[in-house]
């Protein structure tokens, strides 16, 4: 059977066009897949960066809160220590001797103990090397003065914190209270000196943490795999 040349040429042209069309569609699909994969990588990277930012920000906020509380409690320890160790004519113990009423001195001791315990808890929660050192030194001093504090109903616990027997503390006479909690060479004075160091350290850590939340996002800026290298 003889096939007309025109028919054969048109048939071949049709097949050629169909092949080209198939090739174009295949290339188009490949291009779309590449664009989709690149966009997926971009979106995943953006999500990862957003998650990292959220995580770092939350961590920084928690650290800031811890060091804020630590600074506050340390400064309160110093404030009550100043009241207890004051030797002026209007001091707590001078007023107690004149009036026979030790309630203000007792209240100051209880407040000192409360703030001292909170400061120790903050130092323990931190776990930083410097904070472990502060806590160790404070525990060492409280151990040295444990017997004296017990005379006023204040007990040193195994973890270094202090517990108050309010009845025993209220029953202590003015001279005993002043001997244990007043003066410049007792436990209160030494604890106050370390509280000053704790407050200063907490403030430095607050400043350091304030700028660290975002820094890790840019540690690998420009490295292989970031946004600007996806299309290379």
Shape: rod-shaped
Low-pLDDT ranges = 220-232
Q: Please tell me the total number of domains.
A: 1
Over all CA atoms, what is the radius of gyration? 37 Å
Total helical elements: 8
Roughly what fraction of the amino acids lie in strands? Answer: under 5%
Count the beta strands: 2
Largest sheet: 2 strands, antiparallel
Category by helix and strand content: mainly alpha
Helix residue percentage = over 70%
Mean pLDDT, all residues: 81
List its traits.
disordered C terminus, 232 residues, two-stranded antiparallel ribbon, mainly alpha, 3% strand, rod-shaped, 8 helices
List the helices and strands and how they pair.
Elements: H1 5-85, H2 92-99, H3 103-126, H4 129-144, H5 146-150, E1 154-156, E2 162-164, H6 166-171, H7 174-181, H8 187-210
Antiparallel strand pairs: 1-2
What does this structure look like?
The protein has 232 residues and is mainly α. It has one domain. It contains 8 helices and 2 strands, in the order αααααββααα. It has helices at residues 5-85, 92-99, 103-126, 129-144, 146-150, 166-171, 174-181, 187-210; strands at 154-156, 162-164. A two-stranded antiparallel sheet has the order 1-2. A hairpin with a 5-residue loop joins β1 and β2 (162-164). α1 packs antiparallel against α8. The longest helix is centred in the first third of the chain and has 81 residues, at 5-85. It is rod-shaped. It starts with a helix and ends in a 22-residue tail after the last helix.
Question: Short summary of the structure?
Answer:
The chain is mainly α and 232 residues long. The chain has one domain.
């Amino acid at each position: 059977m003889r096939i007309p040349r025109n028919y054969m040429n048109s048939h071949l042209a049709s097949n050629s066009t169909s092949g080209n069309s198939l090739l174009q569609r295949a290339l188009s699909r490949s291009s779309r897949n590449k664009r989709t994969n690149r966009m997926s990588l971009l979106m995943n990277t953006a999500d990862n960066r957003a998650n990292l930012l959220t995580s770092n920000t939350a961590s920084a906020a928690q650290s800031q809160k811890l060091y804020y509380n630590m600074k506050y409690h340390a400064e309160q320890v110093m404030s009550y220590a100043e009241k207890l160790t004051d030797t002026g004519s209007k001091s707590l113990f001078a007023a107690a001797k004149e009036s026979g009423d030790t309630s203000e001195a007792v209240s100051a001791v209880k407040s000192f103990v409360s703030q001292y315990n909170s400061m120790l808890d903050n130092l323990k929660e931190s776990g930083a090397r410097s904070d472990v050192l502060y806590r160790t030194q404070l525990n060492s001093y409280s151990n040295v003065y444990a017997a004296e504090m017990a005379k006023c109903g204040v007990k040193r616990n195994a973890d270094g914190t202090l517990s108050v027997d309010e009845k025993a503390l209220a029953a202590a006479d003015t001279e005993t209270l002043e001997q244990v909690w007043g003066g410049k060479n007792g436990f209160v004075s030494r604890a106050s000196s370390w509280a000053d160091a704790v407050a200063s350290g907490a403030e430095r850590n607050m400043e350091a943490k304030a700028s660290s939340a975002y820094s890790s996002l840019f540690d690998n800026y420009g490295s292989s795999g970031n946004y600007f290298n996806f299309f290379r």
